[in-house]
Amino acid sequence: STNLPSVHLPLQIDGDWRTHAVAADNVEKIEDGGELRVYFRQLQCQDGCKNISIRFYVKKDGVCQEFTVVGVKDEASGDYFTDYSGENYFSIVYNQQEVIILHNTNVDEAGKKTNGILAAGKRDSLTVEEQQKFAAVAEEYGIPVENTRNVILTGRVTPLSPMIPKPPQ
User: Fold this and answer.
1) 142: domain CATH number?
2) What 3 state SS string does 97-120 have?
3) Which InterPro entries does this chain map to (predicted)?
4) CA nearest neighbour of 21 among 137, 113, 142, 140
5) pLDDT tens-place string over residues 117-169
6) pLDDT over 70 for what percent of the chain?
7) Residue 9, in any domain of the structure
8) Domain containing residue 82
9) Which three-class secondary structure state does DSSP give residue 64?
């Protein structure tokens, strides 16, 4: 369990977003071609943010595939649930006008659980402070910072690997 509260919606999340970085405790799921290496394109609140529609791409076998999923809010936990590559339970743990960070727990068809986070932005890069926030959120969820993959460097869905720096101690 984490000390990070889920951010309460509705927030200004509607619009075009780009995945900047992903991190996971099961790193093969977020490597190039991994099913959880998702490239966000659009988020949309529906019904007062009881549902969140997410349009994204995943590169599989060198081909970009577009997906749209709808996360349905569980009023008790505040988390959203959707089906994609198994079951996903996600929440927005950080939200600023230009950057959001989501935490996701994926349980794949084999029952394997992957704990992951994703930073998405409305501009081309994260500030140093936002990178540090991402690293702090990863640490809070027990995800090693070396499991971070930077995916924003181009507008295309292509493999990228520079790391986000570790926050100062």
Assistant:
1) 2.40.128.20
2) CCEEEEEEEEECCCCCEEEEEEEE
3) Calycin (IPR012674), Lipocalin (IPR002345), Lipocln_cytosolic_FA-bd_dom (IPR000566), OBP-like (IPR002448)
4) 137
5) 999 999 988 999 999 999 999 999 999 989 999 987 644 543 333 344 444 44
6) 83
7) no
8) 15-154
9) strand
